[in-house]
Each structure stands twice: as structure tokens, then as C-alpha cells.
């Protein structure tokens, strides 16, 4: 397994240089504090947040508090040194403890935390309690759960405690391997139930990256929040927050399309944008969602963030953060890349993940496997990030040859995964990879179902950029928002009618084509010769 849940801050700070934020004007409130894997609770007028410690500093579960969720004061750590039983169980002394989760029940604050032998599922979940967080006196309650490398197919990290409507407590946990599990707890002891020993399987991606469960109840449903993909890579982290729901706390959980979370399902509610790279590992506390991200404006340092939860049509929606960068929109707009000769679109046809081939497919405007974000990677280059998989198109294995296949993989910040959109004519563009200047085209110039390859020369390499749904427009020059939300309706060749979704007025009274700029963003070129340089953003 490549990376476990709460990786070490020292590792992520060795990441690659900062990529430009592809988004919008920074509207910065107070700066966010350093954090990994925050858990949140309130006592009196104070909110308390406990986080994963920083590697090498021997800070075992730092604590801070705030009255407004913006200004935080450090108050100490849960442990000065690891309890002896942790070292004995693991056979090593952990550099820190991971992914705490705090709850108040049975008259005490119960803090669950993870410790692990790095890179394995030789892991333990422990428990500490205190009567108060104001002047805490932490009591080590010992081992709750452990997994052993080579024995279990689950990992005992990322604990989260939740309660059903009858007051029964459950412990969710897990990372990578076969996903997330759940066990019943004894409320009096805080340890595993001796009467209900069922291990419930609540989410899995078949060994792919999933971790950080948090469960809440709303409107007759239990909602399971999880994190997909990779934390701890600084600005290249692609962590994102997904959710599913169930009528029962033990599952089965399904996403908004009905796909089971045990089969890789999950509805995305937060992904990276602006200065927020890799947001994830959230903790739901009432109507608040605490999570961490990697700050593009601060060399990828891990930061904590708080957002409010609202509910729309039975599903959670996260607000803008209470602090940090709050620029316009929420990242690059989703688009379809429509092939000129066939009207088919660039696709992740099987809705696969790493290694899945890219092909053309028949257009379908609601299918997220056919939608992409063109994320600015600097110098006029973009990555093609699939909305479903969160993986990027790449020249597979960096094969520098005519006819090389194109597949998808996690972002590795290399030229195999970068592309430049170069205008050809009438709003059409070639999607050119820096490897010898080869462009994407379907095999044998075919249509839907044809494999996508790279070729230096070709007669079928034109695509147009079709924004999906409503988008925001901001002016590149002065970073001001233009109008409300805009809808791009294809009219002919590479031309669009651009209309305000609220007022129905047409932008500039003309049709527009879309050209990508070498400096980032796009140029809208009107049939009347007028031009506007803009960013296309998600609302």
C-alpha cells in the first residue's frame, strides 16, 4: 500500500514546487493553523481541536482551542510519551499518533487515536479519557483494536465513534487494504462490545485509497463521510471528500446514484480548488465539518479548516471555509472534450481508476466519467483530470512513440501528464503533449469506442471545449466576477451561445469560441471580433 491515512508532515513538506492556483482572486481572511486529521468538540464557550502530531517533534496529539473557530490557542498534548503498551504491541516507538476522534459520553471525554508501524497495517487504536478539556487529566485506557501485518485485510487506523438513534456506540476505522469497517462499542468501558462481535464492512475501493470515516445522522439517514485518494503530498495531494447514506448505521451505504460504498461508490462534496490542495480527513461535529488541506500559498503546508454543513435534497453541502482563501468559485469548470470528426467525447469509458485506458465515447452530459477539469499546471500546460476517478490522463508509462496509448493515473507532476491546448480553427484545438509534440487522436480516426493515442501529425486531432452546466466567469486581468452563472450552448462548429442562467441575456450579443491561453485561463473570441480573457470556474 502506497500511503496510509495520516502521513507525516515532514514527508509532505519535501514535495514538489508549488503549482499555480488555477482559480480566482485570493480573498483571504485569517490564516489557518497547521493541522492534520482534526477532530472537533465543544466544552462551554470553547471549541477544542485535537490533531495528528508532527513527525519528529514527539507531539503526541496536540490540542488547541478557540471561541470563534478561526483564532486558535495551543494548550498542550494528550501524551508526553507513548504509553508502554503501544510500543510493546507495535515493536517500534511511533514518531507520533494519528487521526484522533473525540466524543463525550458516559460522563467523560473519550479520545480514540491510532498508532502504526509506518507503511504497514501493524496498527493499534487506543483510548484515553478525561473528565474535562479545560484542565484535562488524561487517563490511558489502553488497547481498543489492533491489526497485524499479513493477517488482517484491514488497517486499524482512522478511528471514528458514532451513535445510532438508540444510543448504541460504534467504532468505524480503516485505510486502504479492503477499506473501512465498523465494530460495536461498550458505552460504559469505551472498548469493543463483548456481546456484539460483528465486524461490519461499510466501504471499500478494492485496495485503492479510502480512509478517514466520519458518520452523522440527519433526516432519518446516517451519512458516512470518507476521503478518497492521496493525502500528504503537499500541493500535489489529491485527497477529496465523498459521502454515502444508509437507513442503518451499519449500512449498506450508497451514493446519490445508488452505488454501494462497498463497491467503490461515493458522491463527491469537496475537492481541491484555489489554495486548497487535497482537502480531506474530515470530522463532522453537529453542523460543522473540520478537515485539513495543503496550502498552495504556503509551500503546501498542512492547514486546518472549518466549514458549515447544509442539506439540499437529502445530501450534505459544505460551505466556503470560515477562514483562508475564499476566492470566487470552487475550482476549474468541468468540461467535455468533443472530437470534431465524430462528435464523440474524451472518456474514462469503464469509469475505471489507475491504469484505465482513455477512449472516445458517445456524449452524455450527466455522466461524470465523460467530464474533465483542465487544471492549470503552469506555463500554459494543463492536466486533464477526470471528474469520476480524480485521475489524470497521461501518455501511458511515458512511452515516447507514435501511437502511444493514453491512460489515467494519479498526478505525478511529470510531462507525460501535461498537455497544451493549441488553437487550430473556428474554436477547435489540438491537445498536445510535450513529449515530441504529439497530440491526442482516436486510433484510425475512429469515433465512439476508439482508443485514444498520441501522434505527431494527424487529420483528426481537433477537439472543442464544452463547459458542463453552469459556470462562473472571472476576468483574468482584474480578477472580477462577470455576471451571474453562464451556460455555454453549442450552436455550430466550435461556436457557443453564452447566456446568463438567471437573466437569460446573451454575453456580448454574439457567438463565442473558446481558446486556451498559454498564460493560463481562456480567451473567448466573438464572431464580432471582440475578445475576453477569462477563467471558467465551478459555482
From TrEMBL:
Gene3D superfamilies per the UniProt record, alphabetical:
2.80.10.50, Glycosyl hydrolase domain, family 43
**Every Ricin B lectin domain range:** 331-409
Q: Which domain of life is it from?
A: Bacteria
**Signal sequence range:** 1-23
Q: Name the CDD domains on file.
A: beta-trefoil_Ricin-like (cd00161), GH43_Arb43a-like (cd08998)
Pathway(s) this gene product operates in, as recorded in its UniProt entry:
Glycan metabolism; L-arabinan degradation
Query: Which keywords accompany this UniProt record?
Result: Glycosidase, Hydrolase, Signal
SUPFAM superfamilies, alphabetically? Arabinanase/levansucrase/invertase, Ricin B-like lectins
Q: Which family does it belong to?
A: Belongs to the glycosyl hydrolase 43 family.
The name of this protein is: Family 43 glycosylhydrolase
The species this protein was found in: Actinoplanes sichuanensis
